[in-house]
Amino acid sequence: MEERVFTDRGELVLRSRDGHFELISNGVLLMDTRSDRSERVLVRAALDAIGPRPRLLIGGLGVGFALAEAVRTDASEIIVVEVEPAVVDWHRGVLRPFSEGALDDPRVRVVTADLAVWFTGTSDRFDAICLDVDNGPGWTVFDHGTRLSRPSGLAMLREHLRPGGALAVWSASAGPGFAATLTRMVGPCRTVRIPAGRARPDVVYVASCAGDDLRGVRSP
C-alpha cells in the first residue's frame, strides 16, 4: 500500500512495508511505526516535570504515538498542531490504530497549521509543549523545523509556556550544543537517550522554565 500527496512542502508519501508504515517527505524518511518508545518518552518526560491535569501542546502528529500516550495521561486539554492535512486524514483511516483513536478523545483538538506561524497568531499558553516536527535540531527537513530550533524560535516557544512549564524536543540524534541553547533560552535542560536499534540513540531534550516566581502555579 502506498499513498502519495503533493503539498506546498513537496511530496509526502505514506508507505506500508513489512507490516509497518513509513512517512516519507521528498524521499527522506521522517518516521515509521516500528517503534513507539521515544515518542512516548517525549510526552512522559515533559509531563513528569510538571503538575497534574496539564494543558498540553503536541507539535507534529506524525504516526501518532505521542498523541496516543498523551490521552493516557490526566491532561486536561491536548492541542495537536500538524502542518499536513493528509497526515490528519490518515489518522482517521489507516494510521488510526497507531494513534489509538485518540482524535476522538474530547480533550483533543487538532489544528492544521505550520506551528511556527500558528504560534505568532495566538496568545495561548501551555503547561507542556512536546515538539516533534522534524528529525531534530541538527537534521531538519523543513524550514519550520529549523526556525523552531533556533534561539529566536525557542524564545517564542518559551513565551507560550506557563510558569513552571516544560518544553520537550524530540531528535533523531544528539545536536551539538542544543542542550546548552535550551538551558539559555528556556531553563535547565536534561537529555534522555533512547536506544533505537542503530548506532545512534533517539534523544529527548526536556527544558523546564526557571526563574519563575510562580513556578508550578497554573496561570490563565
UniProtKB/TrEMBL annotation:
<comment type="similarity">
    <text>Belongs to the spermidine/spermine synthase family.</text>
</comment>
<feature type="domain" description="PABS">
    <location>
        <begin position="1"/>
        <end position="220"/>
    </location>
</feature>
<dbReference type="Pfam" id="PF01564">
    <property type="entry name" value="Spermine_synth"/>
</dbReference>
<keyword id="KW-0620">Polyamine biosynthesis</keyword>
<dbReference type="InterPro" id="IPR030374">
    <property type="entry name" value="PABS"/>
</dbReference>
<feature type="active site" description="Proton acceptor">
    <location>
        <position position="132"/>
    </location>
</feature>
<dbReference type="InterPro" id="IPR029063">
    <property type="entry name" value="SAM-dependent_MTases_sf"/>
</dbReference>
<keyword id="KW-0808">Transferase</keyword>
<protein>
    <submittedName>
        <fullName>Spermidine synthase</fullName>
    </submittedName>
</protein>
